[in-house]
Amino acid sequence: DQQVKQNSPSLSVQEGRISILNCDYTNSMFDYFLWYKKYPAEGPTFLISISSIKDKNEDGRFTVFLNKSAKHLSLHIVPSQPGDSAVYFCAASALGTGGFKTIFGAGTRLFVKA
Amino acid sequence: DTGVSQNPRHKITKRGQNVTFRCDPISEHNRLYWYRQTLGQGPEFLTYFQNEAQLEKSRLLSDRFSAERPKGSFSTLEIQRTEQGDSAMYLCASSPLFGGGTTRTDTQYFGPGTRLTVL
After folding, report:
1. N or C terminus: fewer CB in 10 A for chain B?
2. Taking 80 as the threshold, does the pLDDT of residue A28 lie above it?
3. Is the dihedral of CA A28, A30, A33, A38 positive or negative?
4. Sign (positive/negative) of CA torsion A95, B113, A23, B29?
């Protein structure tokens, strides 16, 4: 039962263009969404987040959009740089009986070509 | 700036042996999480501590797995009688008591992980 889905295992983009990574979720209890970036041999690094009360959050080159009715979120990176090449994980969180529980998608590997 | 640290970074063991991993969270963080990640998958939640209290455990955490955080600081994850299916990256993360700006308190900061190989 995959509650958070990233249907594209990989994405290739030219340097300077926009990268759009997509994520779908099924659990309507999720109220906080995050994107993490992971380089090889390192743990995931927090990138950007959005609360369910918003539909957009921007931080420099990174913007996350949330469409609650479609249970869909996306991460836009513009302009893309070769250093952005990494695996990107979408994650969703909800307050449960024991505290916060975060569910991760399987990840999308982004290749930014110079 | 000290982030989350994990030791060892790599562990190779034979089936049936016990292994223990250590996680040192960011010092002011009172929440600590353990995850398991296998190839091609995202991190899967194992367990969660708030201070020294273990508040939630996943069904993935069989009886062979035990986690502790005795003084609310570092944590250990022990796997007894390891099986080949336990081979994975074990990730630790921590999160603060208070958020900042638009960042909620459950934004987690990960360590580099311990890669376990069971032969």
Report:
1. N
2. yes
3. negative
4. positive
* DSSP strand pairing (B5-7 vs B10-13): unpaired
Task: Tell me what pLDDT residue B71 has.
Answer: 86
| C-alpha atoms less than 13 angstroms from C-alpha of B92 in its C-beta half-sphere | 27
Q: A80 Cβ partners below 8 Å, 6+ apart? A: A13, A14, A15, A16, A17, A18, A19, A110, A112
Q: Which of A39, A66, A102 to mutate to test the interface with B (most CBs of B within 10 A)?
A: A102
Q: What is the pLDDT of residue A60?
A: 97
Residue A94: pLDDT band (50, 70, 90) is confident
User: What does the pLDDT look like over A46-60, one tens digit per residue?
Assistant: 999 999 999 999 999
Question: What is the mean pLDDT of each successive set of 10 residues along chain B, which is 119 residues long?
Answer: 90 97 92 92 92 87 92 94 96 81 74 96
Number of other residues whose CB lies within 10 A of the CB of residue B18: 11
**Nearest-CA distance A107 → chain B (Å):** 6
Residues of A near B (Cβ–Cβ under 8 Å) read 4, 6, 9, 32, 34, 36, 41-46, 49-51, 54, 57, 89, 91, 93, 96-107
Measured between alpha carbons, how far is residue A14 from residues A59, A77, A89, B37 in Å? 21, 12, 21, 29
Nearest chain A residue (CA) to B6? A43
Tell which residue, A114, A57, A59, A106, has the closest CA to residue A83. A114
Q: Residue A96: which of A43, A29, A13 has the closest Cα?
A: A29
